[in-house]
Amino acid sequence: MGDPERLFVLTGAGVSAESGLGTFRDRGGIWARFDPMKLATPEAYAADPDEVLDFYDHRRRGVVAAAPNAAHVALARAEARLADRGGRLFLCTQNVDDLHERAGSRAVVHMHGELLKARCTACDAVTPWRNDLNRASSCPACGAAGRMRPDVVWFGEMPMHRDAIEAALAEADLFVAVGTSGAVYPAAGYVRQARRRGIPTCEINLEPSDNADAFDDARYGPASAALPRYLADLGL
Ligand code: BJW
Predict the structure, then answer these.
(1) Which residue, of 16, 56, 201, 211, has the fewest CB within 10 Å?
(2) How far is the CA of 113 from the centre of ligand 1 (A)?
């Protein structure tokens, strides 16, 4: 394979695991301890907003306390190196943390939203938000109280930035997925879209993901070691 010029990278919770943020579906993961249908759906929020907001308050505190690891840093470096030689690294993350940004990545597409932002369900304004949210929290844009929710994408909701993602998939010359189980759609389907275009695909994960057979290359190991090594092999 020649040097990639248009690299599409999809990251998942495994990239932030070594920063101390829990993954979802590993043994002892978030969805092994909590029922996603009671916490990560619009119906759950409508039924019991306090429980949902408490869950995300706890997660938000974890994000604020965490620090990027070598996998985040390697991606930020690769983005800069590829830009220097006229290429582009499109970083699409399913993660709601801000560790890619804090490692220095400049253009991060958060398809499942961002936990450090809150959205007003009255006026739709999105506001940076680092503190706990509760039913007394009011919207800085319209003043409505009790209408703020985490700006994340729950099951049954439409992922964000779909047009930009589709456009980047359509022009990529290499597709790499890192630290994602391949269990959640539409992200889990991107590798097959890439394969249909005939571009090389690689997964970097602790172990084979649910859709490992869709990739034509794989590197297994912790992202903090396997990803920098893989990017170095690409000259990035
Ligand atoms: C390491 C490591 C280390 C560990 N180093 N690796 C088609 C078929 C079937 C169902 C559907 C379908 N299309 C849609 C659906 C429904 C649904 C869905 O996919 N359900 C499945 C469960 C079956 N999808 C949706 O509802 C989505 N919306 C939607 O589809 O709208 C319709 C539509 C879309 C597009 C066009 C037209 C219509 C929305 C999905 C929202 C997901 N939300 C969550 C919560 C976000 C907020 C929060 O954080 O609480 O997003 S769920 C959770 O899963 C979170 C993650 O982003 C997402 C993916 O998880 P991820 O990142 O893969 O983590 P894990 O834990 O699963 O995997 C970690 C991996 O890392 C593992 O493999 C480990 O081995 C590895 N690992 N340590 C390297 N150190």
Answers:
(1) 211
(2) 12
